[in-house]
C-alpha cells in the first residue's frame, strides 16, 4: 500500500513538473514574442519622430506651399529679421569643448494666417555664413512649427554661432516665436538649454 501511494505521489509530481515546464516555456515564448513586437513598435515610433528637414517634405504639404507676397490694400506686407544665438559647443573643465546638437524652432503663433520663412542662415563664431537652410521660402501654416537641425558632429559654428531668420506675411499676424535648443546626452550627465531670438529688424509696407 505504501509503495502504491509513493508511486502515485511520484506520478503526480512528475505531471506537475511537466505542467510547470510547459507553462514556463509557453510564458517564455509569449514574453519573447511580445518583446520583439514592442521593440518593433518602438523602432517604428522612433523613426516616425526622427528629425526631417522642412526642405525634405512634399511641396504639396500645407507647411511648404508658397505664400503670396504681394501686398494688398487691406493687409500690408510685414515681417522681421531675427537673431538667434546658437552654441555648437560650450567649454568645460580646463576649456575643453563639449559638443552639442542644435535645433532651431520657428513657431507661427497666428491662429488664422500663415507666414513665409524667407531664409534661415547659419553663421559661425567669426560671423561668416556657414549654411543656408532654405533653398526657397517655406510657408508655415497657422500654429505650425518648422525645425532646423545642426548635428552634434557639425562643429563649423562654434561656441558663438547664430542664426538669422527672416520671415514675412501678407497679413497682419502675431510675431512668431523663434528659439534655439542645445542638448547633449552622450556623457553620464546630460546638458540642455534654450535661447530665444531677438528682433534686429522689422519691416512693413504701408497701405497704398
Any overview of this molecule?
It is a single chain. The chain is α+β, with helices and mostly antiparallel strands and 208 residues long. It has 2 domains: 50 residues; 145 residues, no CATH class. Helices cover 23% and strands 36% of the residues. Strands 1, 5, 6, 7, 9 and 12 form a 6-stranded antiparallel sheet that branches. The chain is elongated.
Q: How would a crystallographer describe the biggest sheet?
A: 6 strands, antiparallel
Number of individual domains: 2
Structural class based on helices, strands and sheet pairing: alpha+beta
Q: Outline the low-pLDDT stretches.
A: 58-76
Mean pLDDT: 81
Outline, from the CA principal axes?
elongated
What Rg, in angstroms, do the CA atoms define?
29 Å
**Tally of DSSP β-strands:** 12
User: Ends: how far apart?
Assistant: 114 Å
Reading the helices and strands in chain order gives HEEEEEEEEEEEE
Beta-strand percentage?
A: 35-45%
**How many helices does DSSP assign?**
1
Amino acid at each position: 500500500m505504501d509503495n502504491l501511494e509513493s508511486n502515485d505521489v511520484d506520478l503526480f509530481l512528475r505531471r506537475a513538473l511537466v505542467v510547470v515546464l510547459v507553462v514556463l516555456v509557453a510564458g517564455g515564448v509569449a514574453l519573447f514574442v511580445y518583446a520583439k513586437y514592442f521593440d518593433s513598435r518602438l523602432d517604428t515610433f522612433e523613426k516616425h519622430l526622427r528629425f526631417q528637414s522642412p526642405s525634405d517634405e512634399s511641396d504639396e504639404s500645407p507647411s511648404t506651399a508658397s505664400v503670396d507676397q504681394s501686398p494688398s490694400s487691406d493687409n500690408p506686407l510685414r515681417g522681421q529679421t531675427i537673431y538667434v544665438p546658437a552654441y555648437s559647443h560650450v567649454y568645460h573643465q580646463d576649456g575643453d569643448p563639449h559638443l552639442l546638437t542644435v535645433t532651431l524652432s520657428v513657431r507661427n503663433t497666428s491662429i488664422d494666417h500663415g507666414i513665409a520663412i524667407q531664409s534661415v542662415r547659419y553663421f559661425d563664431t567669426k560671423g561668416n555664413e556657414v549654411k543656408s537652410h532654405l533653398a526657397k521660402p517655406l510657408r508655415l501654416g497657422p500654429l505650425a512649427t518648422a525645425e532646423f537641425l545642426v548635428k552634434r558632429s557639425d562643429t563649423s559654428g562654434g561656441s558663438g554661432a547664430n542664426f538669422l531668420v527672416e520671415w514675412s506675411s501678407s497679413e497682419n499676424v502675431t510675431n512668431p516665436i523663434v528659439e534655439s535648443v542645445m542638448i547633449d546626452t552622450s556623457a553620464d550627465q546630460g546638458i540642455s538649454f534654450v535661447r530665444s531670438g531677438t528682433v534686429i529688424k522689422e519691416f512693413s509696407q504701408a497701405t497704398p
